[in-house]
Design brief:
Elements lengths: L4 E16 L4 E14 L2 E6 L13 H18 L6 H7 L6 H19 L3 H5 L5 E3 L2 E3 L5 H13 L5 E4 L6 H11 L5 E4 L9 H7 L7 E2 L8 H9 L4 E3 L6 H10 L4 E4 L1 H4 L2 H13 L4 E3 L6 H11 L22 E2 L9 E3 L9 E2 L1 H7 E7 L1 H4 L2
Parallel strand pairs: 5-6, 6-7, 7-8, 8-9, 9-10, 10-11
Antiparallel strand pairs: 1-2, 1-15, 2-3, 4-13, 12-14
Bound molecules: ligand 164 and magnesium ion.
């Protein structure tokens, strides 16, 4: 593959409304738009870490550092014939999955464009449309959550995920079931806020027919989750605990979950995400694509990945207007039908980047060329 330049642009974009989880309230999104240029095409990706290491250990700053110090120089120093080579190239460097993914995903987009195909096609995805859900944060009151659920159900979203934390859990789920009925496809995400000592409460949640409960226990645990899964009929879904294909193998072997949330950033890129998808499929474990409040470029990557056939549960890839007043891509990501997004058929991610919008939110920029790095 021809790779002539890598550009990093850090953007800070205000959210339409604050988004709160058990560990953090976000009011804006800070990320790096990575572009990889070669052969007259440009591949794009977004970094997904937060500004403080509360979801995982990475931050926007650590990603910038990893990219400029190790990952971009390594990419320029190597011969890449396929994006799968990028994850092999980065494998000896420990962790830093979100940094690796930011560059690897941009290479995937460039590859698809250079090959004259869509990213979904390059990944082997067959679906023409995908079913999607929406993630609802913790709100100042249960009533606020109910208002959000009402709005997103009206927009047709096919899965409602609500964030819970100790003190804001049973009451919320009960109120949603009472107001909207037993048929609403509902799940809860605890972002690691509980421990096995909360078993009585988690067992109470079991009566509400949730599609799943996501990451109830510690961010680095798969043992206690296996113990908990044996006590619950509600499927457990792992998010924070799954970083590598080996984590998936162990979680399946132990019975730590029945569903896995695949986030491309958390697992180090599209090649690894696809491997996890395939392994889960072999074991009859359904997967869905999680989100990190991405803008359009990240959403487009998630859509392409979700076109693989074991993504059978609607993911968190909602439309652009869920979080953003203005998009950096054209067209913005819109529902093609209630609760459905179309998988683009155009080249690469299938959305174009509006440089003017990027500049509006840009706070830092750097460009890297093989010639300057190795001069
Ligand atoms: O809409 C999205 O992109 C999903 C948002 C969401 O639920 C999450 C984003 C970032 C970190 C977490 O709080 C969380 C998750 O755990 O899935
Ligand atoms: Mg989660």
């Amino acid at each position: 593959m021809k790779i002539e330049q890598v550009k990093l642009q850090q953007l800070q974009v205000p959210l339409k409304a604050p988004f709160e989880t058990s560990f953090r309230r976000m009011v804006d999104k800070d990320f790096i738009l990575v572009s990889v240029h070669g052969g007259g095409e440009v591949g794009y990706a977004e970094s997904v870490a937060m500004t403080i290491p509360v979801y995982n250990e990475e931050t926007t700053e650590t990603i910038w550092y990893m990219l400029e110090t190790f990952l971009i120089p390594q990419l320029f120093a190597s011969k890449i014939t396929h994006p799968d080579n990028v994850s092999e190239l980065f494998a000896p460097l420990r962790r830093n999955h979100m940094a690796k993914a930011a560059l690897e995903m941009a290479v995937w987009d460039l590859y698809a464009k250079q090959q004259g195909m869509s990213l979904a096609h390059a990944l082997g995805g067959q679906k023409k449309t995908i079913d999607v859900g929406v993630s609802i944060g913790i709100e100042p009151s249960v009533d606020h959550v109910l208002q959000n659920v009402e709005r997103f159900l009206a927009e047709g979203y096919k899965k409602i995920k609500v964030k819970i934390k100790p003190g804001f859990d049973l009451e919320v789920i009960k109120a949603i079931r009472e107001r909207f009925g037993a048929d609403v496809p509902l799940m809860a995400d605890a972002n690691s806020a509980y421990s096995l000592s909360d078993l009585p409460l988690l067992k109470e949640l079991d009566q509400y027919d949730l599609i799943m409960i996501e990451q109830p226990l510690a961010h680095d645990d798969i043992i206690d989750h296996a113990k908990l899964q044996r006590e619950l009929k509600t499927p457990i879904c792992l998010d924070e605990s799954i970083h590598t294909i080996v984590d998936v193998e162990k979680a399946i072997e132990l019975g730590s979950c029945k569903i896995i949330n695949i986030k491309v950033g958390r697992v180090g890129g599209l090649t690894e995400a696809k491997k996890m998808h395939d392994l889960c499929q072999k074991h009859g474990i359904p997967v869905w694509c999680g989100g990190m409040l991405e803008m359009g470029v990240g959403r487009a990557h998630n859509i392409a990945l979700t076109s693989l056939d074991n993504f059978t549960i609607p993911g968190d890839t909602s439309a652009s207007d869920r979080y953003w007043l203005e998009e950096i891509v054209e067209p913005e990501v819109k529902l093609a039908a209630p609760g459905m997004l179309a998988v683009p058929t155009g080249l690469g991610i299938g959305y174009s980047v509006n440089e003017e919008k990027v500049k509006k939110f840009q706070v830092r920029e750097a460009s890297f060329h093989p010639a300057t790095l190795f001069a």
